Amino acid sequence: MSWQGWLRPDGRKGIRDAILVVYLVECAHHVARRIVDRMDDPRVQLIGFPGCYPNDYALAMMKALTTHPNVGGVVLMSLGCESFNREALAASAREAGRPVETVVIQQAGGTRASIEAGLAAVARVQDEADRRAVRVPMLRSELVIGTICGGSDGTSGITGNPAVGRAFDTLVDAGAVCLFEETGEMIGCEGHMAERAASPEVADALVASVQQAERYYRAMGYGSFSPGNAEGGLTSQEEKSAGAYAKSGSRAIAGVIRPAEQAPGPGLYLLDVVPLGAPKFGFPNIVDNAEIGELIACGAHINLFVTGRGSVVGSAISPVIKVCANPDTYARMADDMDVNAGRILTGEATLDEVGAEIVALIEGVAAGAQTKSEALGHQEFVLTYKASMPAGPACLPRVA
Amino acid sequence: MSAIAIRLSPADNVVVCCRTVEPGERFTVDGHTLAVTERVELGHKLALTPLAAGDKVLKYGMPIGSMTEAADAGAWIHLHNMKSDYMPAHLRDAAGDHA
Hints:
Chain B: Keywords: Hydrolase, Lyase. Chain B: One of its GO terms (molecular function) is hydrolase activity. Chain B: Residues 12-83 form the SAF domain. The complex is a heterodimer of chains A (400) and B (99). Helices cover 38% and strands 18% of the residues of chain A. Chain A contains 14 helices and 14 strands. In chain A, helix 6 (160-173) links the parallel strand 8 and strand 9 (177-180). Chain A has two domains: 18-132, Rossmann fold (3-Layer(aba) Sandwich), CATH 3.40.50; 139-395, no CATH class. In chain A, strands 10-11-9-8-12-13-14 form a seven-stranded parallel sheet, with helices on both faces. A four-stranded parallel sheet of chain A has the order 4-3-5-6, sandwiched between helices. In chain A, strands 2-1-7 form a three-stranded antiparallel sheet, with no helix packed on it. The model of chain A has no long low-confidence stretch (mean pLDDT 94). Chain A is α/β, with parallel strands linked by helices and 400 residues long. Chain B has 99 residues and is an all-beta fold. Chain B has a single domain (5-83), classed as Archaeosine Trna-guanine Transglycosylase, Chain: A, domain 4 (Roll). Chain B contains no helices and nine strands. Chain B is globular and about 35 Å long. The relative contact order of chain B is 0.20. The model of chain B has no long low-confidence stretch (mean pLDDT 90). The chains are: A alpha/beta (400), B mainly beta (99). Chain A binds chain B through residues 153-155, 157-158, 187-188, 214, 217-223, 225, 227, 229-230, 232-239, 242-243, 279, 308, 326-328, 345-347, and chain B through 1-3, 6, 8, 16-18, 41-45, 57, 59-60, 62-65, 77-79, 82-92, 94, 97-99.
């Protein structure tokens, strides 16, 4: 199957054409939100960064997000005195062929004037994005698909996660890029991952990433484990990990990538979300949408979100397909769920059948069908401070 | 008719409930008879065989922690009788700052 995507100047193709309104400090958040609210168009989406201090990671993330293939244009909302390098961000989006405008609230004359200036800027950017739009056929092999699990319970690891794993196997075999996360939820699985590595260098990088995650989480005092995980039948970090790891499927692991880094070629990659060195700035993944944002910054067109307890979130920029692992949760929250993987537990479907259903759904959503969270208006986004995470040479797959 | 509980790997000494089970229920999984003594919810674990304190708990064929006290076949296996070999789990009443 093929569908019409958006061809971007860098050669990547998108499945959506979002116009981003980006606040560069919390002080510009209200003005940016009013602009997006008044546009009242799902295409015009709000993202932002709250802090006033500079952060290389946040700038790298914003550069990757504003040049994502699902993004057609950008309006930056700055208070004026914050540290965020708005010129560098605007230049990066402009060089990537996106129409960009910047509104500086202190120059525009305050809240009212900036909202009006922002609305006019969004209209101009949207028109220009439409003028520049190049629609081209797009194939399964051109997709970047991420996966995450949130609100996991004792069903996630036996229905939703392995079903996503089957879908990943199909996509990897088709030449797509598949991204799984996160290293804190791979604790206990590092030996098995190393056996699946495409090269000894990748095996070393996988083990090192998990060891760093374990050190980091120990220092934070908590594993990547929530009270709801325990209420849902999971008892230990390593039990949750074994279930989470099933999302990765069974194919060779081509490499380890870091937030805002693009996969160098097709295949399956681990997204390492834990910075090197001593803990700095707090938890590496404060909440599921922080990781979804990182998967999107790595180019993910769509993210597969497996939930047992029942998450409702979506995301700005890239659609989220929610795979509900637990049949009881599905019965309660069907409006929020795209896939009922609980049918595997009740004997109504097999892992392979649900895996094939997920692949078909991905192609439908890529072709323009709305996910449940898109239809409900979910466009969550969160970005906070993190130490920068440069890629190491061992993270790149060995050239065959 | 689907299974009441499933053993994910032949090496496992616990099974996962495919539905909520009630006290008094008795059923067989892989030749082991389990007697349920308390309500255990969907997705939670039951001991497949009698377990002793210190035993590794095996699920997906891999260790997911260790028993902290003994349990009979059919007993609920959770935070009250097993723990992680890596790092402790926390509940909603956890202190806000362990670091």
